[in-house]
């Protein structure tokens, strides 16, 4: 039996460069794991079918990426499936759902990593990332975690060093708000496709600029002020006008003294970068007092250098 932690991610940078022949968008992103994760236990069912249970019963269906990851591994490794049988997955959700934090992707990635262990498949990180990309654009990053530049669909990864000192953040999300990622990208295309870069070579050249750009420099030196100055998320342009509550939350975090605040991924979660754990706690309390919204959830957490990892024994 294995117990794994599947950390969430935030996007410190998300630029939409253009369309891709596969119907997705060509992106350039900086992805960062955070110290908020789901917990998954994997064991053998001693039968020929997989089973997924979850503390949120609505998530225990076969469309859950955790279940689909088990199916993918079984299809790819029929001999291992025949000898080890199905897997029993129990998922304890901590990461809010449909929040722009790649929670579902992290769970799928954890099942790939866990089954690699359970079935002694001996797959490398690179092989796991390649499998992961078939389930979704964010999964390859979730396998390895830490800090990475992501290009292409989001699956081409260059891992970079995480900031040298811990970076603290407040994460906030309206409990009753979920935003569809396909909706966010489709709406962005409707509104901004006239400025998309068309030629693949020009798209690639644009994406490469990130490597020597100010956000990557700020991360390398752990310069919080520079990091804050270069936060970017193109999807805010479509999500914030449609969901004023998200914009209000972002503003409230800034009013409460956060160094910088931005929506993560396609939202609706918003993160606020802070100087220390005490500063983050103060920003959280002030924001809660400003908005007085019983539907708001808050987490104080920090950047993490880990992707999927075994839970430490308690
Ligand atoms: O890959 P994933 O399942 O996370 O993507 C969800 C949706 O987000 C896609 O169906 C697509 O509408 C949009 N998307 C995109 N370009 C990307 C990644 C996602 O248009 N690079």
Quick recap:
The chain is 38% helix and 27% strand. It has 314 residues and is an alpha+beta fold.
The CATH topology of the largest domain comes to: Ribosomal Protein S5, domain 2
* Number of continuous helical runs: 12
Tell me the fraction of residues in β-strands, as a range. Answer: 25-35%
β-strand number: 12
Estimate the helix proportion, in percent: 25-40%
User: What oligomeric state do these chains adopt?
Assistant: single chain
- Could you say which small molecules are bound to this protein? cytidine-5'-monophosphate
Average pLDDT level: 96
The H/E string reads EEEHHEHHHEEEHHHHEHHEEHEE
The gross shape turns out to be globular
Task: Please tag this protein with its features.
314 residues; alpha+beta; Ribosomal Protein S5, domain 2; Alpha-Beta Plaits; 2 domains; 4-stranded antiparallel sheet; 12 helices; 12 strands; 38% helix; globular; binds cytidine-5'-monophosphate
Describe what you observe in this structure.
It is a single chain. Strands 1, 2, 3, 4, 5, 6, 8 and 12 form an eight-stranded mixed β-sheet that branches. A four-stranded antiparallel β-sheet has the order 9-10-7-11. It has helices at residues 65-76, 78-84, 103-118, 125-133, 139-144, 181-192, 200-208, 214-221, 224-229, 236-242, 244-255, 277-291; strands at 2-19, 25-44, 51-54, 87-92, 147-152, 156-160, 168-174, 232-233, 260-263, 270-274, 296-302, 309-310. The protein is built from twelve helices and twelve strands. It folds into two domains: 2-162 and 305-313, Ribosomal Protein S5, domain 2; 168-302, GHMP kinase, C-terminal domain (Alpha-Beta Plaits, 2-Layer Sandwich), CATH 3.30.70.890. The protein is α+β, with helices and mostly antiparallel strands. The mean pLDDT is 96. Helix 1 (65-76) packs parallel to helix 3 and helix 11 crosses helix 12. The structure holds cytidine-5'-monophosphate. Cytidine-5'-monophosphate binds next to strand 2 and helix 6.
């Amino acid at each position: 039996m294995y117990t794994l932690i599947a950390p969430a991610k935030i996007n410190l940078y998300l630029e939409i460069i253009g369309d891709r022949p596969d119907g997705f968008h060509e992106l350039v992103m900086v992805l960062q794991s955070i110290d908020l994760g789901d917990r998954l236990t994997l064991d053998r069912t001693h039968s020929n079918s997989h089973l997924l249970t979850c503390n949120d019963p609505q998530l225990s269906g076969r469309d859950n990426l955790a279940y689909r990851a088990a199916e993918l591994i079984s299809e790819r490794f029929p001999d291992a499936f025949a000898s080890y049988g199905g897997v029993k997955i129990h998922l304890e959700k901590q990461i809010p759902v449909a929040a722009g934090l790649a929670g579902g992707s992290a769970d799928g990635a954890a099942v790939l990593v866990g089954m690699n262990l359970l079935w002694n498949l001996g797959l490398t990180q690179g092989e796991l990332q390649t499998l992961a990309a078939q389930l979704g654009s964010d999964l390859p990053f979730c396998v390895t975690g830490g800090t990475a530049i992501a290009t292409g669909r989001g699956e081409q990864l260059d891992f970079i060093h995480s900031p040298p000192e811990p970076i603290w953040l407040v994460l906030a999300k309206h409990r009753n708000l979920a935003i569809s990622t396909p909706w966010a990208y489709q709406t962005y295309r409707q509104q901004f496709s006239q400025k998309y870069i068309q030629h693949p070579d020009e798209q690639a050249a644009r994406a490469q600029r990130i490597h020597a750009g100010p956000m990557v420099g700020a991360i390398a030196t752990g310069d919080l002020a520079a990091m804050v100055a270069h936060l970017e998320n193109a999807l805010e342009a479509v999500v914030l006008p449609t969901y004023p509550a998200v914009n209000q939350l972002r503003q409230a975090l800034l009013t409460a003294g956060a160094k910088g605040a931005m929506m993560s991924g396609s939202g609706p979660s918003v993160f606020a970068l802070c100087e220390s754990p005490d500063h983050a706690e103060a920003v959280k309390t002030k924001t809660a007092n400003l908005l007085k919204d019983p539907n708001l959830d808050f987490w104080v957490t920090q950047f993490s250098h880990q992707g999927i990892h075994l839970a430490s024994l308690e």
